[in-house]
Amino acid sequence: MRHIVGATRTPRDRWIEEGLRALAAGxxxxxxxxxxxxxxxxxxxxxxxxxxxxxxLLRAMLDTWERESIDEVLDRVEREGGDPRTKIxxxxxxxxxxDRLLPIDLAIRDWARRDEAVAERLRRVDxxxxxxLRELIGTFCxxxxxxxxxxxxxxxxxxxxxxxxxxxxxxxxxQVLAHAADLLLxxxxxxxxx
Length: 194
Fold this sequence. Notes:
The chain is mainly alpha-helical. The protein is built from 9 helices and no strands. Helix 1 crosses helix 2 (33-40), helix 4 packs antiparallel against helix 5 and helix 4 (54-80) packs parallel to helix 7 (116-137). The protein starts with 11 loop residues before the first helix and ends in a 10-residue tail after the last helix.
């Protein structure tokens, strides 16, 4: 095939990034080649230079999410150092407070309810996250049952608080979350006024 001088192909990463934006905003059904091409300001023909089909794009999106939410988060947590409690908090903030990763993670959790392959991918990612929690919590807690319970509670808090609409009387959500983290991480409470 002859290439036209000056013609540029939309990079594969741009398709993946736009696909992740669509996934986060509206779920997997909104990840459509034509809609992505329109957002990118290109024709959909260029898509097939990077991907065999839509399923290949979806797999590449999951690969990117997994790399960013596990490998890159763990690399950054180790690189920035600190004690185990700091590492746990940093991993949680990077993953579940991020304007980028949180919406993608929540969309993938919803998608996994309807797609077994996505559910298996999510299980693998969550297992790696739980392994990190167990290792770090195990540095200040020796009871295996308590380590497992604290790890589960910490993980459920990180994910579940995004779905909770409850008020907290005269406390802010941030205050309650900070206090919950102190309890889970066995730290002294910074503000005992409430």
